[in-house]
């Protein structure tokens, strides 16, 4: 099989969400000496992009994004064992959570799966997350971006609470802060000093790319 | 209904799993159920038949029995058996089919209603709020008054919604949540007194979500059993936490009325309207299992925040009929369109289509949670006109109006806020807004709404 055929097979197995066969195909490709970076980029990540597109067109749903993210993580971990450390980098580390008092989960879950599929290392802090937890976790995990989700008027002030903590602790320049959810808007993002706003999951990926200079 | 201490025990001893695992279990189960029960969306037949409604209900029982409720605090699953859920249903069926709100001349009865019933759904209209509609402190009183002064409006639906008071943002779980909510409530009660409907039901309060916030509202002469509903509902998909469960117990012990929301999201874990309808029923049953629950709200939207679609009409209508037939409680929901269409003629077409369809599906009450009180009048007139309409005639009429909405929304003008639609001094609609109302109403009459 040519390189192209092997990568295409991996891509198709990723798209079909067949973790067992995708992992086996990745292992075979590695054992046959194909370039690990190419297996990752032209095989696994190419498949993940299609999964994201299928979600956008309504062909795939949140469970497929979840399964795709798990599958990609397993494949990527296997491939990374063969990649020199300097090349072994994700596109960035992103923390996401629903702010304090906010229990809305689904929109946040979609965003974090899409960002994960785009190649970022994503940490889900869950719902009803105290403001200081975002900061403690960002420091602990050396995050690049902090994503704040809120649905209600009454939880929206916690966007700025996190940003104000960062500012008052002298940490604001170390992290990009993005906001999303029904309570967010471009105007609000600007007024509270956030680095950006995303109305939906694909926009959140583009926003992360922009902030990471990619 | 199970005892709350039993529910707590299950929440502390049920299977441990991460939220993601629960979500995947939910998705796997619901994907099994719609083919098993042969539930299919039909854009031509937006009102489902009795057999389909019953299949959706049964699938909802099996979904909840199959996956349970997820407690996000303990990360454990509250499990139910089929037999327990059947008993929950039986308890609901054999219990009261109505609930009273308001006092004296402002009293209103929310009662179980079938789609064939000539009695119209109760109109409950009022401020939307909750972070989805731009309401301002400066015109909040006039906004509320625009609804309260409409005679056909028997209660407010969902109240509050001012994002800040005197520049102080409402912030859940802090004193500002109480400060802002008290201001809103004083303003609303003043409006009620001014209009002469002092004991009208004020509905679900949307600005407060914490237990402390609710407690601050409930005292004599303010909010009480007769004029508030508290949201102790299941979050999509099938998730609860200690604060919701605790509030549910308080509501029950005080003999207050909870806000029950059979709510599901299309396009996330649920793929289409069929799965969404089943999800709504499971959500409703989940709350019936731990809470006293009259009336019941049915609601779905897409993951992109849309709901003015034929799939939504079908799913809401199907879940309404499924619930109405099987638990025999007053079922209701919202007929307003998305925020970006606020204050436009286009929004009136959607409200009309939804009002016709949901009345024929068995709404016992109807939320007109739009942008001005004039829409409450508009919706109320439709509810009166179409109650008892032949089912197939209603189906055809709803589709015709829906097609008009689809055509109109494509070139809808920019949205307008309340001060552009009402004279803030007289609290009456502007000439232009009134003209829109009359024009659309005339057109709907020609389409077949038999206005009385």
Key descriptive features of the protein:
heterodimer, A: 214 residues, alpha/beta, Methyltransferase, Methionine Synthase (B12-binding Domains), Chain A, domain 1, Rossmann fold, 2 domains, elongated, B: 452 residues, TIM Barrel, 6-stranded parallel β-sheet, 3-stranded mixed β-sheet, 17 strands
**CATH fold title of the domain at 102-232 and 291-295 and 330-447 in chain B:** TIM Barrel
Per CATH, which architecture of the largest domain in chain A? 3-Layer(aba) Sandwich
Rg result of chain A: 18 Å
Strand content of chain A: 5-15%
Can you say what the CATH homologous superfamily of the largest domain in chain A is? Cobalamin-binding domain
Strand content of chain B: 5-15%
Q: Which descriptor suits the 3D outline of chain B?
A: globular
* Total beta strands of chain B: 17
Biggest beta-sheet profile of chain B: 6 strands, parallel
Strand order of the largest sheet of chain B: 5-15-14-13-12-10
The CATH class of the largest domain in chain A is identified as Alpha Beta
Count every helix of chain A, treating DSSP H or I runs of 4 or more residues as helices. Answer: 9
Structural class call of chain A reads alpha/beta
**Termini distance of chain A?**
33 Å
Oligomer: heterodimer
CATH topology of the largest domain in chain A: Rossmann fold
Q: Overall mean pLDDT score of chain A?
A: 88
**What percentage of residues of chain B falls in helices of 4 or more residues?**
40-55%
State the name of the first-level CATH class of the domain at 102-232 and 291-295 and 330-447 in chain B.
Alpha Beta
How many structural domains does the protein architecture of chain A include? Answer: 2
What about the largest sheet of chain A?
Answer: 5 strands, parallel
Polypeptide structure, described:
The complex is a heterodimer of chains A (214) and B (452). In chain A, 55% of the residues lie in helices and 14% in strands. In chain A, strands 2-1-3-4-5 form a 5-stranded parallel sheet, with helices on both faces. Chain A folds into 2 domains: 3-87, Methionine synthase domain (Methyltransferase, Methionine Synthase (B12-binding Domains), Chain A, domain 1, Orthogonal Bundle), CATH 1.10.1240.10; 93-211, Rossmann fold, CATH 3.40.50.280. Chain A is an alpha/beta fold and 214 residues long. Chain B has 452 residues and is of the alpha/beta class. Chain B has a domain at 102-232 and 291-295 and 330-447: Monomethylamine methyltransferase MtmB (TIM Barrel). Chain B is 48% helix and 14% strand. Chain B has helices spanning 4-13, 19-36, 50-67, 82-94, 140-148, 175-195, 211-217, 242-253, 273-290, 310-327, 345-361, 373-386, 391-409, 418-421, 431-447, and strands spanning 69-71, 76-78, 98-101, 108-111, 122-125, 158-159, 164-165, 168-169, 204-205, 229-231, 239-240, 257-266, 296-302, 331-334, 363-368, 422-423, 428-429. In chain B, strand 7 and strand 8 form a beta hairpin. In chain B, helix 2 (19-36) runs antiparallel to helix 3, helix 3 (50-67) packs across helix 9 and helix 5 (140-148) crosses helix 6. The termini of chain B are far apart. Classes of the chains: A alpha/beta (214), B alpha/beta (452).
